From TrEMBL:
Domain called Thioester reductase (TE): residue spans: 8-235
Record Pfam families: NAD_binding_4
Protein name in the entry: SDR family oxidoreductase
SUPFAM superfamilies: NAD(P)-binding Rossmann-fold domains
Length: 358
């Protein structure tokens, strides 16, 4: 039987990369790509780079609406053929307003769950969560843990947590794999990334002070979980299909992470050719970023600072074990950071990659 993959989150960067890799692994597979009407034009352009409209069919819909806003005819057609569901659609902005985050991340996931449970030929439901459903937990966080009474740093974290709770509630009803990535960077081989957020905010910050002695931000002794997108894609494609992946949650985090101070210094040396030489208290930086004019000038979201104080240590034992059996491992940050920074330097004036800071 021909596999049919149903995706939300297309034409997003990770979803598109996953689709390209799945085609390499299964050339005869079919794809049904759920796209919000507002994204139709962009999706059509991206689909044209993938292949034929017959193999990669765009389906207009809306995860925030009951039945994904699909016609009964389209729903019936999908139920008759879909074998894999990859749910990536979400609002990933750390500064996202609560109502929008809840509607897309929580209500949207509830609606996708309902759709998934209606698929008689389903082989695997792959849900993209985040390692940061751990919220403000400290110490070692296991892949097998979720509900621990934690609080959250922002609405992105809290709504992704609520969404994963919903997904875990159906794990006895459908074959399920949950992916929890860390902070996803660009490709480890090319540096390619669609937008300069997350650790790229550090690069944007350093650009503003390149001619001055560069400070560290805070003590920086906590661990940073940076992972390149090609590792996330390769690992996900593997875990979505191997028998050992069914029913499991995976931290796609760096099993040998660098501290925030080490990662910051790596970026600084690659970007500016010099190391930081003094330390600025993180509270002072956060306070400055609370001033809209300063925040917009340096082009850094204040929510970013919290991730330089993250006290969680993400245990990725299940991911390491199951991926090692397939010859897959996370690249070392020191080996690819130079390519990430080089890509940023080449494209830092590209307005489409710059995240608007409010």
């Amino acid at each position: 039987m021909q596999d049919v993959y149903f995706f939300t989150g297309f034409p997003g960067f990770i979803a598109t990369r996953l689709i390209r890799r799945l085609v390499e692994l299964n050339a005869g597979a079919q794809f049904r790509l759920l796209v919000h009407p507002s994204q139709r034009e962009r999706a059509e352009r991206e689909r044209a780079t993938l292949g034929s409209a017959e193999q990669f069919q765009i389906v207009e819909g809306d995860i925030t609406r009951e039945g994904l806003a699909l016609t009964s005819e389209k729903s019936d057609a999908l139920r008759g053929c879909v074998t894999y569901v990859f749910h990536l659609a979400a609002v990933y902005d750390l500064a996202v307003p609560k109502d929008l985050a809840y509607d897309v991340n929580v209500n949207g996931t509830r609606n996708v769950n309902t759709f998934v449970k209606s698929l008689p030929q389903l082989k695997r439901y792959v849900y993209f969560s985040t390692a940061y459903v751990s919220g403000d937990r400290t110490g070692r966080v296991l892949e097998t843990e979720l509900v621990k009474g934690q609080n959250f740093k922002n609405h992105y974290e809290s709504t992704k947590y609520e969404a994963e709770v919903l997904v875990q509630s159906v794990r006895e009803q459908v074959p399920l794999t949950i992916i929890r990535p860390g902070v996803v960077m660009g490709d480890s081989k090319t540096g390619e990334t669609p937008k300069f957020d997350g650790p790229y905010f550090v690069m944007r910050f350093l650009d503003k002070f390149a001619s001055l002695p560069i400070p560290y931000v805070g003590r920086g002794d906590v661990l940073m979980n940076l992972v390149p997108v090609d590792y996330v894609v390769e690992a996900t494609c593997c875990l979505a299909h191997v028998e050992s992946g069914e029913g499991k949650v995976y931290h796609l985090t760096d099993p040998r992470p660098y501290t925030a101070k080490q990662a910051y210094e790596l970026i600084c040396r690659e970007l500016l050719g010099k190391p930081p030489v003094w330390t600025l208290p993180s509270g002072l930086v956060y306070g400055a970023l609370s001033i809209p004019a300063f925040r917009k000038w340096v082009q850094v979201e204040r929510e970013t600072i919290a991730y330089f104080q993250e006290q969680s240590v993400y245990d990725a034992s299940q991911a390491e074990r199951d991926l090692a059996a397939q010859g897959i491992q996370c690249p070392d940050l020191r080996e690819y950071m130079g390519r990430e920074v080089a890509y940023y330097k080449e494209h830092r004036e590209d307005r489409e990659k710059l995240i608007a800071v409010r």
